[in-house]
Amino acid sequence: MDKRQFPMNTDDSSKERYPSSKNLFIWGSIFFFVTVLLSICAPKLITENTLFPLDTNRPNEIGDTIGGILGPIVGLIAAALTFLAFWAQFDANIQQRKQFDLSFSNEKAARRDEEKRISDQLMMQQNEILRQDKSSKINLFETRFYTMLSIHRDNANNIEVHGVKGQKVFLHMLDELKLIYNLFMILNKKEKGNFSPEHIYNVSYLTFFFGVGKKSTPMVKDLVGEKLVGFIEKSHMVILNQIEKNKNDSLVIFEINGEKLQWEKYYGLGVGHLRRLGHYVRHLFQAIKFVDEQNSDLLDYETKYKYIANLRAQLSAHEQIMLFYNAISVMGEPWLDILEGGENYIERYCIIKSIPINAADFYKIPAEFFSSKNAYGKSMFEWVEIKERMQKLS
To answer: Is residue 247 predicted with pLDDT exceeding 60?
Structure first.
């Protein structure tokens, strides 16, 4: 048996369980030799000892005397030899039992080692399976995520409005939305309407999104309800009349109650952006939701944040501002739905972090709408961070 696998048991407990025969064997041997010596010397000592004189001069008497003396002695010698023989067998049995116990102990140790080895091997296999499974899931996730990221880039690059194409479209979209909002606020004031800025903004965003015209205006009227139908009809008519009035000019100019607004014709005012922004915003929302809904055992918050930061890096500053104004409208409410933990998607992943705050200068201001840091302590606005760094310099 290989001692490397079955180490010898060095436990001394067996010495306590089994009596040692060494001392008994020594004393038995001494007794044997003393008995033999006495048996040889006894006849002479007894027959010639003057202390116990025996009248044994005749041969037969001497023989009877020797036989009578040596008989018990020989019997004792025989008994001693028999005892030694039995003791030798007893000692052999003890040694055999010791060997058996040692072998059994080694086998138990070997079984324990083998069970531990098998257990460790199974644990390693299980961990490897879990690692491979996690790696496979991450690879699958990344494949889908980067596919969605690629689709988003294509969506942004392919947006086109009357010859204006790509991410620069968002700059003009923001100007259009701002103009419509300011125009509607002036018209609301002129008509002495009692509509709140929230009502005016959402009507403005719906007008911006669906457009103004025979097909577009009815869609907006259907969404706003009876309370605002009259306001929509008058406001859209103002826009259509002014477009017609300035159709040969490079600008569409509104002069109402002493206030002047103008739209440079990068593209037609009130054309609507349903087919452009609808698909773009929905896909962007689904991409962020896809990352957020990954199991925390697969991706923790920090990892999810890094993936979405990668997506955010693909958004221009004006795309992020446009996303903010979409989110605070009735069209983009899912962006602000409260998630588990108390924040929304924009706050949780600082999706509009790169915007120049002063560029979002109508209706609601991002820095006033959101806190400076989210629930995880991350800065919501890079603009604020830059200002803080400058203040430290002074």
So the answer is: yes
Give 263's strand partners: 252
CA pair distance 317, 323, nearest whole angstrom = 10
Q: Do 368 and 321 belong to one domain? A: yes
Which parts of 211-273 fold into alpha helices (H)? 216-224, 226-245
The greatest distance separating any two alpha carbons of the chain, rounded to the nearest whole angstrom, comes to: 175
Are 233 and 302 in a shared domain?
no
Are residues 30 and 50 located together in one domain of the fold?
A: yes
Unique residue bearing structure tokens 């008989």: 71
172 in the same domain as 256: yes
pLDDT digits (tens, 9 = 90+) for 84-142: 778 778 878 888 888 888 888 888 888 888 888 888 888 888 888 888 888 899 999 99
| Residue 5 covered by a domain | no
At 248, phi and psi to the nearest 5? -100, 0
**CA–CA separation, 18 vs 43, rounded Å?**
42
Domain count, the chain: 3
* Rounded-to-integer distance, Cα 180 and Cα 191, Å: 16
Range of the domain at 346: 276-393
Environment class of 181 (CB within 10 Å of its CB; exposed 0-12, middle 13-18, buried 19+): buried
**Looking at the structure, do residues 26 and 134 belong to the same domain, yes or no?**
yes
Domain boundary among 140, 174, 204: 140
Q: What is the dihedral of CA 112, 116, 122, 124, to 10 degrees?
A: -170
What does pLDDT average to over the chain?
84
**Are 47 and 96 found together in one domain?**
yes
- Give me the DSSP letters along 166-195: GGGHHHHHHHHHHHHHHHHHHHHHHTT---
116 and 204 together in one domain? no
Per-residue pLDDT tens digits for 327-368: 999 999 999 998 888 889 999 999 999 999 888 889 999 988
Taking the C-alpha atoms of residue 10 and residue 8, their distance in angstroms, rounded to an integer, is 6
- The amino acid occupying position 121 is Q
Same domain, 175 and 225: yes
